[in-house]
Amino acid sequence: MSKLSKLRQVAFERQCGRCFYCGLPMIPPEALDQFATKLSLSSKLARGVAATAEHLHAQCDGGRDTAANIAAAHRLCNERRHHLRPAPDPARYAAMVRLQIAQGGWLKKTVRQGLSVHFGPRSFEPVRHAALHIDHDRRRQGSK
Question: What is the pLDDT along the chain (144 residues), one digit of tens a residue?
């Protein structure tokens, strides 16, 4: 297992299996095929809710593979953040994502239903765990 995979696993456990940005359950990569098959989802749709290692301070901006800089996030949430230029601050992006979810958006209906079936009807209620809150700016300033 690579260092980044180990850091993703640690973050996944620290966050109780919830995405850093949207707060919804993630599927561990090793369980992705089973999840897709069980819910008759395409592998592309299922991959969107797979847990990935998210660099809070992007690698292209000097972010490193450290536990303090790695959070677990859905592949979809991770990729969408980094497609924005410049990539928004993690806390600001999380607020934007959660607002879209509250308005019925963000994930395709079939994926939302799949998460609900797989994890239970209350699983689609985003939660805010203390472990999900990282004062990223303060850490970054302290490391200078």
Answer: 899 999 999 999 999 999 999 988 899 989 999 988 888 888 888 899 999 999 999 888 899 999 999 999 999 999 999 898 888 999 999 999 989 888 888 877 667 767 777 777 665 555 554 344 444 443 444 444
Write the CA distances from 6 to 18, 62, 66, integer angstroms: 17, 20, 10
Cβ-proximal residues to 127 (8 Å cutoff; 6+ apart), any chain: 16, 18, 23
Domain ranges, ordered by start, for the chain: 3-132+135-139
pTM of this prediction exceeds 0.85: no
**In the beta sheet, which residues pair with residue 73?**
52
Angstrom CA distances, 66 to 3, 58, 86, 106, 127, stand at 9, 12, 22, 29, 25
